[in-house]
Amino acid sequence: MSIVNIVDDLYQYDERSRKLFEEPCNEKLTLIFAGRKRLKENRILREKLFKRYLVPEYVWTEVVVRLQGYFGSEDTFSDDDSTLINHVTWFHFEIKYPFKDPKTGDNTYAWYKMGIVTTWTAPDQHAIIFFDAPDSIREQLKTACEAIKAGPALQNPYWAHEFLVGPIVQCYDKAVWNLRDQVKEFEISRRKGASVVPDDPAEDPEIETTKAAFNTLHEILRHSLHATETLGVAIETLASICARKRIFDEESAIREAIAEAATPEETSKTKTARVIARRWSKKITTYLDFKLSIVKSLEARAKANQARINSEITLAISSVAQRDSRVQAKIGRVQTRISKAQAEIGHAAQNDSNTMVKIAAVTMLFLPPSFVSAIFSTTFFEFTPPEGDKVSKDFWIFWAISIPLTIVVFAALYPGNKGLMFRSYFSKSGHHDPDEPSNFTSHDSIDLEKQTITAPKTEV
What we know:
Blueprint: E1 4-10, H1 15-22, E2 29-34, H2 36-41, H3 43-52, H4 62-65, E3 70-77, E4 84-100, E5 107-121, E6 125-131, H5 135-145, H6 159-191, H7 207-262, H8 268-376, H9 395-413, H10 421-430, H11 442-454
Parallel strand pairs: 1-2, 2-6
Antiparallel strand pairs: 3-4, 4-5, 5-6
Helix pairs in contact: 5-6, 6-7, 6-8, 7-8, 8-9
């Protein structure tokens, strides 16, 4: 006869579940797997389940369901409060489980939010309700059920916790080390010469590559933060279980002492059974303390993962800053060369300008005499010298006109000079002086604005 009853998926109130809730239980362990979503949709099934196994209704409230971890317990006594009948506990563990997708090979993750209720009925019957159990933990518990045997260990309500904690801690362990593997991938690639940020921008033509690498680093950091958080809560939950276990043992010892005092003629067989039960109770306590120490060690590993990924992010950011500094230095050197080239161009332009000034000066020096000479060469004038003379006696007229005219033109139009009043006058006549007051007053501006506002709009 099997001493274990496994309900693999409780999702509806049918004949099987009716027998489970209404008929007496003969098995030493009843292991029920259920999903919160289906129980939420089936209120009757949930009420029957909670009533049968003494589950408090506030465990189902939104405040409790959203927590990352908790532990509570409650005792049920006989009518005269002298005999312990039931010991009920409820607790919750939450794990963020990172892993590689077997199909794509990409890093991904899953949240395991496990709610558990244990109901112990004196002297040695256990019921475990496991909400949203991951497949790996479900299979491990099923396998462990095959080795369960009736014995004094079942007389302790916290045997169920010893039975459950092992696979849960193993899941925490895999989650932490899977995350460590992702961190190590970056460290190994960096030691081999790969870098999130190439030293030369030309090696990373697409910024999306660097962006994806930084996103991956921050995803791992986010997983590390969640791992540290959930492990810290798991430590508190396990510590609460261990503390409540010790309180239960102390209360049991007091009840046994009272029973021994009431029945001094107790047989040696009964005393031996109590000694064995206490021994198993201490063994369970030791096991739970050991698992608690493992979770504390995993928390230290999770914090180390977090520190390592923070170090990788800091190194990547420093690499970006160094690369940007080198790029800015190159830009500065290029700008220096450009400035020197521009200065040389400026000097060349200035030299050209000076040359043009000289050419213009020579041109202005010879232009007025040439102009006068051209006029005197026309048929309107007759300066033919008498026979025997090589130069006309009126040659002085040419110089009398050319020299003053050259001086006037040179003074008025010499390049680089603002000119005399003559040039200034013609310059002002062609351009408006900004310092000169305008006839356009502010009233004219206001009238113009009014005309613009009131003007009818035309369709374009």
